[in-house]
Write a structure and sequence with these properties.
Blueprint (H helix, E strand, L loop, with lengths): L3 H23 L4 H10 L17 H14 L1 H15 L6 H7 L7 E14 L2 E11 L7 E10 L2 E2 L9 E7 L4 E3 L13 E11 L3 E2 L16 H29 L12 H29 L6 H28 L10 H12 L7 H11 L10
Length: about 375
């Protein structure tokens, strides 16, 4: 039976398709739409049911993002980053999770990267930092940033000997967004820089993802970075689906004084190949998720498989979008042609650290059984 969230996402696609150009121009997702998404539970997709979340399975998470991205990549991206921020609620102490999710419809945003510095004080930490890429931050009541915990002799170490990196939650009132988001693609995500300056964060609103054990939940066995990478791949797949559909519709449209481009054998061959490539990439993602979920524990090889699937999805989706854009001909260069936006969005997604070439190298080392730092796999 289809999950209710997937049915809802499918119903949103026409609205999101219409809203996408407005979001791109405004450089943010409409606040009212974001609030509605919160009420439907999109930002709590990955929160355990025991903490008020929907606790969807990883395949539902991927398919929901993919569907939203068919309408608007920016909306899907903000849902993805908000949902993965919500996943951190599984790692917080009970008190912190309850405080974070006191409003069950709250929108969340944040950055995992340890761009901040945290000084231990009684009851918590004093935090300073600046984090780029805080997607959806303008609509979020709570924001998070990763911070190195600093001791007297430098970064504090975890039990494993690694520097202690804590995810810190702070309210919108205690943080600032600096307008930096002037970009080619995913413009509607409003991924401005997030800044905090000597803000107190109580211990209960912090977590060390590499050390703390998550509360029981459907996605809990999957490492947070695997979930993030799968989300990036899912959005790319949705963008490619939209681009292929737009290209197909435009190719079928009659042209003045001649047959439609659909009658061109080159168009037929290229579209058929692109369709096969997209479906194969999507199948790999869903198959990898299903395979890993059969295991009682997630091995390093499992994590490598998930990263390979996510990275492959982004590469394949971008290749498909390039085909669709090329087949669009001269019409595809105009800003009012959706193929133009799909191309910019797809190529921006390729720059995300979870699916950049370095991520494939990390997955390859793990797959081959070589040593390495796999904390971000």
């Amino acid at each position: 039976m289809t999950h209710a969230l997937l049915t809802h996402a499918r119903g949103l696609v026409p609205e999101l398709t219409e809203a996408a150009p407005r979001h791109e121009t405004a450089r943010r997702v409409d606040p009212e739409l974001s609030a509605r998404l919160g009420r439907e539970g999109y930002f709590r997709m990955l929160v355990p049911a025991s903490r008020g979340g929907l606790e969807v399975t990883p395949d539902v998470y991927v398919r929901a993002l993919e569907t939203l991205a068919e309408g608007d990549a920016a909306t899907a991206w903000c849902v993805m980053t908000g949902a993965t921020t919500g996943l951190l609620a599984a790692y917080l102490p009970d008190e912190g999770a309850a405080r974070l999710l006191r409003d069950p419809h709250v929108a969340l945003a944040g950055v995992f990267a340890p761009m901040g510095r945290a000084t231990p004080v009684e009851g918590g930490y004093r935090v300073r930092g600046r984090w780029p890429f805080c997607s959806g931050g303008e609509n979020a009541a709570w924001r998070t940033g990763g911070a190195l915990v600093m001791g007297e002799a430098g970064p504090r170490k975890t039990a494993s000997g690694a520097p202690e990196v804590r995810s810190m939650f702070f309210s919108a009132e205690d943080s600032t967004l600096v307008d930096t988001w002037n970009v080619a693609g995913l413009s509607g995500t409003g991924s401005h820089d997030l800044v905090v300056d000597d803000v107190f964060v109580p211990e209960c609103l912090t977590a060390v993802l590499s050390e703390d054990k998550p509360a029981q939940g459907a996605t809990a066995p999957l490492p947070p970075f695997a979930v993030l990478a799968l989300g990036v791949g899912a959005v790319a797949l949705g963008v490619a689906r939209a681009a292929l559909d737009a290209c197909t519709a435009q190719a079928r449209a009659p042209r003045r004084g001649g047959a439609s481009r659909a009658s061109d054998s080159h168009v037929q061959i290229e579209l058929a190949r692109a369709e096969a490539e997209l479906r194969a990439a999507r199948a790999f993602v869903l198959q990898a998720i299903a395979e890993v979920r059969e295991h009682d524990t997630i091995s390093l090889r499992d994590r490598a498989l998930l990263r390979m699937a996510a990275s492959h999805a982004v590469r394949s989706a971008t290749s498909v979008v390039d085909v669709a854009h090329a087949l669009g001909g001269g019409a595809a260069i105009y800003r009012d042609n959706p193929l133009q936006r799909h191309s910019r969005d797809a190529h921006t997604i390729t720059q995300h650290i979870m699916v950049a070439p370095g991520a494939s190298k990390l997955a390859g080392r793990a797959w081959l059984g070589l040593e390495g730092d796999f904390s971000m796999l």
